[in-house]
Amino acid sequence: MSIEPEVPYDTSLPDEDPGTWRDPVILPDLNAMRISGYNDGISKSGFRESSQPDRIPDDYWILPPNVTVADILGHQRSRVDAIRARTNTYISFNDEKHQMDIWGEPSEIIKTKEFFNELIQTLPRHEDKKKQPSWGKAEKELTGKAKLKKERREAKKALEKSFQGLPIVPQPYISSFAIPDFSLPIPKLVGEKESFLNTIRAECKCYMWYEERLNIIRISGQNEEAVKKASARIRNWYLKCSRRPRPCSLRLVSQPSKNLMVSFRALPQGFMTYCYADPDTEKTMLEKQRLVEPIQTGHLRMLENLIELDDHQPKTKPENTLSESVATLDKHNREAIQRALDEGLESLRLFDWEIRLKVRFGQICLVDYPSKKRLFSIEELSGKIFPDPKFYSVLAPCIGKTRENMDRLFEYLSTNCEEYSDSPRTSFAIEALQYPTCASPPTSRRTDGPPKARGDPWRTTVTASFTSDGRVGLWNCLAECEDLVTISCVNLESEYSWETKLEYARRLPTEVNTPHSMFVSKLRLSAQNRLVLVSVPEYAPKIVTQKTKWVYGWGKYVVEVGRDEIWDISRVNRSDLALPLDLGMTEPHRVFYKVSLYKEEWRNRFSENLNLKIGEAPRWTTSDFLASETEDAHLLMEIAKQFANILTKEVPVYWAGNNNQASLF
Q1: Which has the least CB within 10 A, 26, 171, 545, 596?
Q2: Helix residue ranges, H only, 163-223
Q3: Are 515 and 495 in contact (CB under 8 A)?
Q4: 101: three-class secondary structure by DSSP
Q5: pLDDT per residue over 494-536, tens digit each?
Q6: Where's the DUF7905 domain (predicted)?
Q7: How far is residue 246's CA from residue 343's CA, in Å, rounded to a whole number?
Q8: Which domains does the chain have, with CATH numbers?
C-alpha cells in the first residue's frame, strides 16, 4: 500500500513565504513568542517597539495585587520615559503576568527594583471596605498576668481619683501657694477640668484645691516631703505659665591692644553670604552688605611750641595709649554677657523645649548700618553704632569653600586635640512647610459640609541620622525655632570674629499619623550616601542640608568642623513630583565649611528639659553657666578669643586668592 499523498507537492514551484502559511485571522501567540525570545519587543498591538532590547528580559518586578500599572507608570503610562532615564534601564509592563520586565546591567536593575519599592510606598493606602461583622467577638478571658496588670492599672486610677477634691479628714501637713495677682487666668494654671492639678496630685499623692477669695492654692497630705514637692511644682508651673522668653541681642567690640579706626568695606569677590538665598536675592545681599575693616592709627601729639621737638620724653601720652572707654571694653562686655545669658537662661529654664548654646566663628556681616562714608572710632562703634536699634548685623559662618582651605586646621586639630571615635558624623536637616497633623478624611458629604480652614502651614526642621544599612535612625522635628540670646563680638585684631547663640525650639510629637512622621518613614539613603526624598501629603520640603561634622575634644570644650551641602528643592528639575527624588543626581547649590565650639556639659544639662513633667524643674541653674569655677562670662570670652586667634593662624580667609581690592564704602 502506497503512502504517497494523493496530491503530491510540486517541487518545481518556488518556496512559499514562511510568514504566509498561517491563517491571518489567528493572532500571534505572544506568550509563546516571548518565551522563545522571538517577541521581546512586540507590544499588545503586535508591533515591536524599536528601542526595546531584542532578547528576553534580564529581570522582572512583580506589582503587588493592590497596585495598578497606572499607579506606577502614571496615566496612560506617561512616566515610562522619565523612569527609564532615571533608572538607566529599559522597562516594559507585561500585562499578562502583571509584572515589570527589566533590561539592563545587574547593578542598575537592583536600583530599579529599589526605586519601584520606594514608589509604591508613596501611594495612598486603600482601606479595607469589607463589611464589618455586626456581631462583636466575645472578649477573651484574661490570663493571670494580664489580669493582675489590669487590676494594678485600675487601682492606680482609683488612687489618683482619691486625691481629687477636698480631703475628707484633716491632713497632718499643710502648705499653700499664694498667687501674686490676677493677671494669669486660673483655668490656664489648673487646666481644663483641673487636668494640670490632677497630674501633680496623683504624682505627689497630695490634696490640692484653689480658694478664690484669697487667690491661693492649698496643699495637704500625709507626707511632709510630698507636700513640699507639690508646693514647689505648683510654684514652678505658675512661673512657667506667666513667663515669656526674654530675647536679647548684643553687638560688642573686643578690646584691642592698640588704637584703630574702622571702615565699612564692600564684601570681597567670592564672599559667601550669611544664609542661603536664590541667585537674585544673593546678588542683592552681596551688593548691599558690608564688613568691618580695621585701620591702624594713633593719637596725634599736640605741641605747644617747637622746643618740644627735642624733648626725648614727651609730656603727652604715647600714640597707642587707649582711651578710658576702649581700655574698659572687656569689662563692659563681660557684664553685658553675664546679664544677657542670666536673663535668657532663667526665662527658658522651666520649659520642656529643645535648648542649645554654642559659639560660632566667622565674619560679622553688616546688614543695616550707617550710610556715612567715613572712618569711625572704636568709641563710636561700641558706644553709638552697635547699640542703635536700627543697626543690624549677623555672623557669616563660612570659613572655607573647599577641603584644601581647611587642611591646616585639620592638621592642627589632629595634632593638638583628640578626635571622637564616631567622627565624622553625618545627618540631614530638612526645612519644610507642613501642618502639624494630617487632615481628617470626610465621613459624609452631607453631614461634613465644606472643609474647615486649617490656617497657615508651620515652618519646621526635621533632623535625621541614618544607620549603616541606610535606614532612618534617630530623628526629631522642631517648630518655632528662635534665637533667644545672640551675642556677636567683632575682633578687630583677628580675621575671625565670634558669636554665642542661645536657641530654643518646640519638639513636635512623632506619632505615625503626622505628616513629618510619614515623610521620615520613607526617607532613604542612596548608594552615593545622598538623601532620597519621597513626596507625602501636607509636607513640602524646601531646603535640604547634608551635615558632615568632624568632632574633636579641645580641653574641656568640643570643636566641630562642619561641612554643609545645601539643596534648594525649588531649583531641582523634577518631571514628576510623585516620583522619589534622589539628591545624588543633583549637585548641591551651596557647599561650605564652618567651625563651632561648645561644652558637652551644656548639652547634658539642656537634655533634662526634654522630659520635664507638669511643674518640674531641671537640676541646672544659671549659676552652673555663669558663676562656677570653670564657667563664667569672662572665661567664655577668653576661650572664644583664643580659638579665633587659632583660626586666624591656621585658616587664611577663603577669598584671599581672588586678589581683589574691594572699596571701603
Answers
A1: 26
A2: 186-190, 195-204
A3: no
A4: strand
A5: 999 999 999 999 999 888 788 999 999 989 898 889 999 988 8
A6: 321-631
A7: 7
A8: 34-120 (3.30.1370.10), 149-242 (3.30.1370.10), 250-299+321-438+457-658 (3.20.100.10)
Complete DSSP assignment for 306-340: GGGGG-SS-SSPPTTPPPHHHHTHHHHHHHHHHHH
Closest CA to 32 of 83, 75, 96: 96
What is the distance between the alpha carbons of residues 396 and 655, in angstroms, rounded to a whole number?
Answer: 13
pTM: 0.78
Query: What cell does 96 get?
Result: 499578562
Angle between helices 403-416 and 633-650 (to 10 degrees): 120
Q: What angle do CA 107, 111, 114 make, to 5 degrees?
A: 140
Q: Strand, helix or coil at 545?
A: strand
Asked if 238 and 470 touch (Cβ cutoff 8 Å), the reply is no
The string of pLDDT tens digits covering residues 93-147 is 888 888 888 888 888 888 888 888 877 776 765 544 444 555 555 666 777 778 8
Q: Are 647 and 405 in contact (CB under 8 A)?
A: no
Residue 72 scores a pLDDT above 90: no
Contacts of 457 (CB under 8 A, 6+ apart): 433, 434, 435, 538, 540
Per-residue b/e over 255-271, b at no fewer than 16 CB within 10 Å? bbeebbbbbbbbbbeeb
- The DSSP output letter for 37 is T
Rounded Cα distance between 461 and 544, Å, is 10
> What is each CA distance from 347 to 171, 241, 294, 355, 487, in whole angstroms?
35, 11, 37, 12, 17
Nearest to 196 by CA among 137, 237, 236, 146: 237
Q: Which residues of 336-372 are buried (b: 16+ CB within 10 A; e: fewer)?
A: bbbebbbbbbebbbbbbbbbbbbbbbbbbbbeebeee
Helix (H, G, I), strand (E, B) or coil at 58: coil
CA atoms within 13 A on the CB side of 155: 6
Q: From residue 492, how far is each of 263, 454, 496, 568 by CA, in Å?
A: 11, 50, 9, 35
- Rounded distance, CA 181 to CA 215, Å? 8
- Cα torsion 661, 394, 280, 400 to 10°: value is 60
- How far, in whole angstroms, is CA 125 from its chain's centroid? 28
CB-neighbour burial class of residue 662 (10 A; exposed 0-12, middle 13-18, buried 19+): middle
Measured distance CA(62)–CA(117) in Å, rounded: 10
Pairwise CA distance, residues 176 & 617, whole Å: 19
pLDDT band at 45 (very low <50, low <70, confident <90, very high): very low
* Residue type present at position 406: M
Question: Highest mean pLDDT range out of 443-447, 561-565, 660-664?
Answer: 561-565
Distance CA 515, CA 520 (A): 9
